[in-house]
Amino acid sequence: MRFDDSTRVYIAGCAGMLGDAVYRLLSSTSVVKATDIVVNEPWLEYADVRDYDGMRRSIEEFKPDVIINLAALTDLEQCEREPENTWLTNSLGAENLGLLATKLNVPYVFISTAGIFGGEQDVYTDFDEPRPLSHYAKSKVYAERYVQQAVPKSLILRAGWMMGGGPGKDKKFVNKIYKQIAAGASALHVVVDKKGTPTYTVDFARGMKTLLEHELYGLYNQVCGGGGSRFDVAVEFVRLLGLERTVRVERVESDYYAQEYFAARPASESLVNLKLTRRGLNGMRDWKVCLTEYSRVFLDALRSAGRLAPPPPPAPDR
After folding, report:
1. 0.85 exceeded by the pTM?
2. Radius of gyration of the chain from Cα atoms?
3. Phi/psi class of residue 179: alpha, beta or left (left: φ > 0; alpha: ψ in -120 to 50)?
4. Residue 91 DSSP code
5. Which domains are seen in the chain, by residue range?
6. Around Cβ 235, how many Cβ atoms within 10 Å?
7. With 0-12 CB in 10 A as exposed, 13-18 as middle and 19+ as buried, what is 23?
8. How far apart are CA 57 and CA 37, in angstroms?
């Protein structure tokens, strides 16, 4: 498909960190209707993926050329506490939008997760068999299978440890580390026994657009290059902020956070983009390159809050 000023893109669940990146990218070239149950931007309208009739009205009146479903409950502890809401949002919501995409004969994009695996392997390809451990992971596996089997023009993209959106929208690991630093923490306790692959929302949105343009439907791992532990990411982030001399990153095991983070998590959810690479469409950069770019947002926020000195002025021309 082509993206131009006549292309109509419907995005559900667009209020979060990934939605911010997808909206910014696609609204620059196309007509976008963005919805969510949280209306935190002037360009958002209310719609709930759990409500089939409501979604049908919202989508059919817009007449989209493509439907993108970003709606999900991704907080694993919330998913364990609210299993019914988890399945309604992550699974029934995926079905509802898949049915509408099929009815309208338009492409359908669904976002899945590296968390569907059990952690028995160090690294997983697109073809490895899921072994979900939590309600969140199980609901995503169900949705993956439904979309693959029932929606002809479907694109399923598995993300890893998502980062993007800045302090206002990032609800994941990088912003949690930032909040501790902004609050004055001099020591960070970060787990070393969980491995994964960071995934920058900006690159992820670009990759999604590329696959839609090529009409290469199917299931893909789409994560940044490289990988490591949560500890590795925290150390790199602190270094990029220039705080390695004042903020210590200390290794801990997952048991350290057993009460706070009680949902089951795989020891490894590291992915490789095997299919994207073989098809010559892997535009995901190395995670350290992406984190370098992303960290500038947090550097600016720390400087604005007076936690960092402003950058030196440029040298005068001679």
Report:
1. yes
2. 20
3. alpha
4. I
5. 8-170+198-225+270-284 (3.40.50.720)
6. 17
7. buried
8. 15
